[in-house]
Amino acid sequence: MFAFTKSAFFTATAGIASECRRTLKGSGGSAGHHLLPQDYQPQPGTGSIRFLWRRDTSQPPPFTFLPSHPISLTATPPRWRRCRAWAGRELVRRCWPPFARSCRLLPPARPHVMAAPALTFLRRLCWRSLCEARQAQAVCIPAVHLHMTTATMQVSQKDFEKAQEQLKLLKKDPGNETKLKLYALFKQATEGPCNSPKPGMLDFVKKAKWDAWNSLGNLSQDNARQKYTELVSSLISAESAGQTKDASPEESRHGGYETIIVTTKNNITKIMFNRPERKNAINHQMYREIIKALHEAGKDDSTIAVITGNGEYYTSGNDLNNFANVKPNEMEKMAKDGAVLLKEFVSSFIDFPKPLIAVVNGPAIGISVTLLGLCDIVYASDRATFHTPFSQLGQSPEGCSSYLFPKIMGLAKANEMLLFNKKLTAAQACAWGLVTEVFPDGTFQKEVWERLKAYASLPKNSLAVSKQLLRSMEKEKLHAVNSKECEVLKERWLSDECLNAIVSFFQRKSKL
């Protein structure tokens, strides 16, 4: 704890204001004259100081501060003296002139919430200064909020180029939808409105790019630079906030996977779809990694295996971007290779020797739904949905669903799902026999994993033998059904109906 005096207060606040004035002096600005400290309120026992600023009304300021705008800071006077010069310069550099006459600071609506990324520098400036001084203790400014008016902020060419460099530092693929938006904004910012001829219908990639760029219309280059920079900033922030926590010491994490996370703990091997930015859509790499993970889980010392999703979705099914980079003269090869991969993928579920449990944490679409018939237990959150839009996409059933769904729910209900694209709620899926049990979303993970731990404590050889007795009589039939479904799908992927459906999908996605 420290004694914070009136003198120390003005040393800190006036120091920042003087740096504002010094920075602006050469450019004819005078914003620093409007940043006047009014008072301070020590918070007993915490070492925290609440600063009160007032507005200098002698002339119209570029920043309109309300008369008493509180800013709470946690720092000792020596630290503030150390960083005040940098803070003053940074305040001016970030806020003058882009925000001039277009923003004002308002009293906080909620504590500990930053209302706009534009003011995150107020957190960073203190943190960076303290780190440089090797006294890395966080400085908290929870009460700063920004209200934007209709005026547009301008981004300099330097900021635009900096955003391009930052984009290269992203570790995770932001997804094709976001990449299309970035491409369109970049082209609009550098070349203006779309002026290139429209590509052919079967050139999926070029057509998607053209549609994305063309959809921006007459958006000005300045606004396009602004939107591009904001989008890159949001991607950087999201990646920093969403970094996956390291596995706990008791949990063994399997290496060699990029699109899934495979861990073993308490005799349970968990396979988690891990493309949350793409709603866990299954691309070719994920297909191969799941095949590998199931093969290894079938031979390891675990008792049961669990499949679930990371994020809001269980999985959105087959990633249609698998078709995006295929040239027209390679369509037949794509269809043939895709059928071979799908057959191997489904076979890995048919042949899995241990109890396989699906923990459906959110919406499930396509192949992820049809595979549930090959799982031994299916637990679902009450916010999960189940959708098989095969005819809508010009395709046909897969995952042995053409055989298993009529057995599970009856032919009439199977027709509703597989022919007419009926989407089921978790409760409906349970009533129809596709789901074993539904849990409230708030307690879903806790309740389900308590049961799974109990299942994993059972004798594993007994479980494996019992599963083989239950499944062995149908294995040959399931493999035959899988082969037939893949042959039909290979033909459907080359049909005009399927190609038109894929083109329509990309056209919808390109309307950003």
Automatic annotation (TrEMBL):
A GO CC term attached to the entry: mitochondrion
Sorted UniProt keywords: Isomerase, Peroxisome
Signal sequence interval, chain numbering: none
Single Gene Ontology MF annotation: delta(3)-delta(2)-enoyl-CoA isomerase activity
Gene3D superfamilies tied to this protein: 1.20.80.10, 2-enoyl-CoA Hydratase, Chain A, domain 1, Lyase 2-enoyl-coa Hydratase, Chain A, domain 2
Cellular localisation: Peroxisome
Main localization of the protein described in the UniProt heading: other
Domain ACB: from-to ranges: 156-241
Domain of life: Eukaryota
Designated name of the protein: Enoyl-CoA delta isomerase 2
